[in-house]
Amino acid sequence: MANNLSKYAVIRVTPTLDTSAYANDDVFFNSTEIPSAVVGNGGSSKLIGITVLNEDDVAHDMDIIFMQKSTDLGTINEAVGSNSKWTNALAKAAGVLGVVQIDWSVTNIDMVNNLIFTTSNANPSAKSEGLPILLQAESNSTSVFMAAVSRGGTPTVAADDYEIIVHIERA
User: For the CA atoms of the chain, what is the radius of gyration?
Assistant: First the structure.
């Protein structure tokens, strides 16, 4: 008999990107849902790894911020907090859960037409500060959210060039 409820989940999410070049500290993508990140409304899980599939084949460092609530960091492709969107009060209200730094200089696999970055607390060669991160959904949801900040700037990208793959251990 098959186990239909695994202790682990791999969830693939494609955030929407701006197609213009980014500068350092620009919002890379705004709040993006990670559906069914936990089992049951208000539940919790553990983010144990993250993989980034980069289809534009150019390394772009970023920080990915995980939050309980869908909260934008500012205007995509403008500095974090542009138009006073990301304030201290909003940061608290978002229910920030943690951050993962994506540093392509530390570990990536060049697949000729794309790049793959993977980090976990089990991969000591990867930059994985903060992993694992405990995730918890709001009391009426099974989703958590993520948004990202560009570190170092980027050339242009396609709107769907990145797939973020989260590796979750469910409680």
Answer: 16
For 1-57, write each residue's pLDDT tens digit.
455 567 999 999 999 999 999 999 999 999 999 999 999 999 999 999 998 888 876
Q: How far apart are CA 49 and CA 75, in angstroms?
A: 27
* Among 132, 135, 106, 136, residue whose Cα is nearest residue 118: 106
Residues in the chain: 171
As to burial, measured by CB atoms within 10 angstroms (0-12 exposed, 13-18 middle, 19+ buried), residue 158 is exposed
pTM recorded for the entire structure: 0.89
Report the SS3 class of residue 89. helix
CA 19, CA 14: separation in Å to the nearest integer? 14
| Residue 2 vs residues 5, 6, 7, 115, 171: alpha-carbon distances, Å | 9, 10, 13, 34, 19
